[in-house]
Write a structure and sequence with these properties.
With about 230 residues, this protein is an alpha/beta fold. The protein has one domain: NAD(P)-binding Rossmann-like Domain (Rossmann fold), CATH 3.40.50. Helix content is about 40%, strand content about 15%.
Length: about 230
């Protein structure tokens, strides 16, 4: 899980939260997201009350979803999996979102408070617009009864866009415009856990393709390699 998102989770260390994962039965959730959250759980980083709701087209029950992940063999998985829930829904159909809204309100009622909501779009890019439009039309983007932040009221929702963020500069800008109509910048997280992967691979190719570097680029002569991505806020 990205560092900035991990910091956001730590901010609410003692507060309940809901994480809705769209595309919850995909490879990303299975190999990255759930293992990362399970690791947080084992480290005691997560609060006592947290709810991870998977949203996908598969006809699963909560139990099916909990048994979907390889971590189920871990002895600590049983306690963690009690926090996993599932909502069947098609990205293009309103019914799934409406049922999701009811489930989230039930959680709010159980806790007795407006619980912070994270919407994680772990889906192919072609689904982003549809999901965002549905979050707006069903008012899920507003949290539990809180209008958009443009009204001056606090909105306890966060939107997380998984890589790739558009296929080029134009599509990235268009996606940003759509996001900004509903969410403030502080509510938006853009995630690319493969950022820099090609650069690193090219370094390896560069080493072995050049006889002048290959002999000296070795563990005997290089203490460590540090890759830094600097950006302005």
């Amino acid at each position: 899980m990205p560092e900035d998102l991990a910091q956001e989770v730590k901010k609410i260390h003692h507060s309940p939260f809901i994480l809705v994962i769209f595309g919850a039965t995909g490879d990303l959730a299975q190999t990255k997201l759930i293992p990362a959250l399970f690791s947080f759980f084992k480290q005691g980083i997560l609060p006592q009350d947290f709810f991870i709701v998977g949203f996908s087209r598969r006809d699963y029950t909560d139990g099916d979803f909990r048994n979907y992940f390889e971590e189920k063999e871990n002895p600590e998985w049983e306690n963690f999996s009690k926090h996993l829930f599932y909502q069947k829904g098609d990205f293009e159909e309103k019914e799934g979102y409406e049922n999701l809204g009811k489930k989230l309100l039930e959680i709010d009622k159980k806790i007795g408070a407006c619980v912070a909501r994270f919407f994680y779009l772990a889906t192919p890019p072609q689904n982003y617009e549809t999901i965002l439009e549905s979050l707006v039309s069903t008012k899920l983007s507003e949290g539990c009864g809180h209008p958009s932040t443009s009204s001056g009221q606090v909105n306890f929702t966060r939107i997380i866009i998984e890589k790739p963020f558009g296929k080029d500069l134009e599509t990235a800008k268009n996606l940003d415009k759509k996001l900004s109509k509903t969410f403030e910048e502080k509510q938006i997280f853009r995630v690319d856990h493969y950022l820099g992967k090609e650069t690193v691979q090219n370094m390896i190719a560069f080493r072995f393709a050049n006889g002048i570097f290959e002999p000296v680029w070795s563990k005997n002569l290089i203490d460590h390699v540090q890759i830094t991505l600097s950006e302005t806020k």
